Fold:
Amino acid sequence: MSATAIDLTPVPTSPVGEIAPLVARLRKTFNSGKTKPLEWRRAQLEALIRFAKENSDALVAALQADMGKPELEARAADVGQITIEAKLALKNLKKWTRPRGAGTIPLMGKSFVIPEPLGVVLIIAPWNYPVGLLLSPLVGAIAAGNAAVLKPSEITAHTSAVLAELLPKYLDTDAIALVEGGVPETSALLEQRFDHIMYTGNGSVAKVVMEAATKHLTPVTLELGGKSPCIVDRTADIPVTARRIAWGKFMNAGQTCIAPDYVLVDESIEDELILELKKSVEEFYGGETRNNADYTRIVNERHHQRISNLMAGEEVAFGGETREEDCHIEPTVLRNVSPDSPIMGSEIFGPVLPVLRINGVDEAIEFVNRGEKPLALYLFSTDANAEQRVLEQTSSGGACINGTIMHIGNSKMPFGGVGPSGMGAYHGQHSFETFSHRKSVLRRGFKFDVKMMYPPYTEWRTKMAKKMF
Ligand code: NAD
Structure:
């Protein structure tokens, strides 16, 4: 796959003045009822699958031009998300949209819950998986019968341009629109009234999004990040653990929201784990990552500088080479890292893995609980009791035992953060529910009309109420 490195500076933007009329147009479509029939939803989901199939080469090339994503990762972890989610939604659409019966007190009537679309929704995506994180929420929005505005990240400009050019050829542009650009365009979007906003990205911008949403009392789903810990106790299989940590950390050069951020390893196995991590990196990349098609580069100079600054002054166990010219940072493991060092102060979001020593799982639990609730937590252990303690005594968006990243792949489970790592969740049916309102309906008959609930509230009726409640 050859990368199309066309110069896209300045990044493509949609005219700010056209944003309000565009949202008004989508609202008109939604109000017309066009997006509600299951046939419309089905047609859009099928079109999304066709879009992914027919344009996967163009998308992969754009992802490579933007950040040198390896073809396999681009296909499996980014573009591939669309088809998986859309196929699942198509298969279950009838079931998900069906009114669900609810228990009712006898004689009162019949109760049921109808899922209904929210209206016009806004989906704002980041640059690290710029296709999947934009279009897999769209699957939920369409399945639930909404109109939607998509806002891809301006940082991955090639991908944004390909999406802007090709998506309108497949989707109903009366109901689904894409706005390109950065802060001015997103700010203009956020001034509009939406019925739901899903934002994926960092916590600081999440506050801007949430503040804008308060103006219209718009509900938000925030998919954020944080420092996801990786606990390794002395019962773990060390070579397998190392391979799974190295895979989760160095895929996409660590620019993954649920990448292991740091390792807490039992002091008795620290040396062995670091040795095995080194072996895994050599196995994966053959000791050379700079010109390696299987290794992603850092997305831009700003992030390269940020990660390099975090590494400064730390003890490198292996790796450590940084080259600003080609935005490359070698897979790097740091040891003897102080919990108070800058690298432990914020999400690393790069291929640098601090390893900190702990003495037993309980110390790891205490360490994790001193920080903010992470998006993911990883434990490597064969001790069932340790697993139970970690799961019970820590809080995180999700968790994976003896693995990294892979829990996100099960669309039957909700994916989302907790506390500062996010609010709300999606994937599979959970996406459908995120973009739906559950309307509770009670249908009564005319036959039984319990008079005692009406005024006048006679002494007898009050006495009866006292007995009952
Ligand atoms: P980013 O810089 O691409 O920003 C995300 C979106 O916010 C973009 O569309 C951008 O245009 C918009 N934006 C940026 N500044 C803005 C502003 N001031 N006002 C309005 N909109 C603005 O991506 P990022 O934030 O660097 O993404 C990385 C972060 O996202 C990491 O913290 C990572 O953990 C998190 N993340 C979370 C998930 C998840 O599913 N929970 C997935 C991927 C990334």
Remarks:
- The longest helix spans residues 38-67.
- The chain has 14 helices and 18 strands.
